[in-house]
Amino acid sequence: MDVTRLQGPDYDRIRSTHPDFLASYANYYLCNDVVICAHFGDSRADAAAKAAPTRLYPDRAVEQLNIDRLGTGGGGIHCVTQQQPLPGSARKGRHHLGSCRRGRVPAASP
Predict the structure, then answer these.
(1) Percentage helix, strand, coil, to 5, in the chain?
(2) Of 49, 41, 43, 34, nearest in space to 67 by CA
(3) Are 41 and 10 in contact, with CB atoms under 8 Å apart?
(4) What digits encode the pLDDT tens for the residues 44-86?
(5) Active-site position among 31, 37, 79, 100
(6) Domain locations in the chain?
(7) Catalytic residue at 79?
(8) pTM of the predicted model, to two decimals?
């Protein structure tokens, strides 16, 4: 197993000043041909955080998003991109992905 270290941002350089804010670059989401990760306003750390998945996933585009509202609640991108069952489908075993729906992630087949 290979382990890649991701340095977190400097909390004195990020946009949020909320005392409970969680700024983690490790909380990212793989979405078919894209890696979705965070940026927090620390330009040096944000650039390094984009470089890591670019190197680790060379066949995927890397998109960084402002997730300040998620971080204020202690969460991140991966936290809010979990699969959600379709209403009434739990007994049938069918699920869909609750995020990244812009044509990149197909719904699970029945």
Answers:
(1) 25, 20, 60
(2) 41
(3) no
(4) 999 999 999 999 999 999 999 999 988 888 878 877 777 666 6
(5) 79
(6) 29-97
(7) yes
(8) 0.70
